[in-house]
Amino acid sequence: MQGSSLLTTQPARRIESEMLPMRPRPSLVQRLLHSDRAGLLGLLIFALLVITAIFAPLLAPHDPLAQNLRAAKLPPAWHAEGSWEHPLGTDNLGRDILSRVIYGSRVSMTVGFLGALLAGTLGLVIGLIAGYRGGNTDALIMGVANLILSLPYLVFVVFIAAVLGRSLLNVILIFGLTDIPIFVRLARGETLRLRSALFVEAAQGVGAGSGRVLLRHILPNLIGPFITIITFEMSAMIFYEAGLGFLGLSVPPSVPSWGNMLDAGRRYLTIYPWMSVYPGLAIACTGLAMNLLGDWLRDVLDPRLRGRG
Length: 309
Hints:
Elements: H1 2-19, H2 28-35, H3 37-54, H4 56-59, H5 97-133, H6 135-150, H7 153-164, H8 168-178, H9 180-195, H10 198-205, H11 210-218, H12 223-246, H13 258-265, H14 274-301, H15 303-306
Helix pairs in contact: 3-5, 3-14, 5-6, 5-8, 5-9, 5-12, 5-14, 6-9, 7-8, 10-11, 12-13, 12-14, 13-14
């Protein structure tokens, strides 16, 4: 009797185990996020910055341009003279620091995203042409790119910004155009490597034209490296925009930006440090997040790096 009961219970257990729902296996991105906590932190901070920039009018407690001289130079709320009406204090004109930091994320994220997108798009196209055509075309394009890269970047950018004047559009164009050579060199190098690959030679052997080879076979292999480089360049552009704002060469003074806030608060740094500390922390956290995110994207998009360590 005991043997027969075992025979009847074992198939039943097997059937029950087969009827249990299978747990879905985590995707590659989920596994890499779980293993790379720094990348997850960078992604969360970046997402928070994007949400802050988009919904700034809803998140800011005050108008960032509203002045109240009777409430000027208030310390943060946790100080004895502070008020929770202005959690991070006010500047010399009585403008709310928290609201200006929130609105400042719009300028930084706009400059970083659009500047890197412009530079990456133009650099990708030019680099593809240079690497695939070769010859005089390659020599001319790379000669111009190397000439621009040989110039001191910050001095070059400051000179152009001083000539063009203070404008958000000018800042985007300055960073977008001066960063093109970086992407040109990357696209050209990868194109030269892929041009001699077997799958490209096979496509050419069956009669594929230059446009089809570039768009269908070479370009998809450049997307991963370019996304990674764009992330790092966004971080650099945010820092450079803040530097231009500190020098008075970025957006007009009426536009709340982290660089303008640093410039306005430097006169009171030893007396009222919160005017410069909080925009400075915002810049540092943004740069940290973008670099952590870029490192994680490099691991995700480059299979050669996933096998290391």
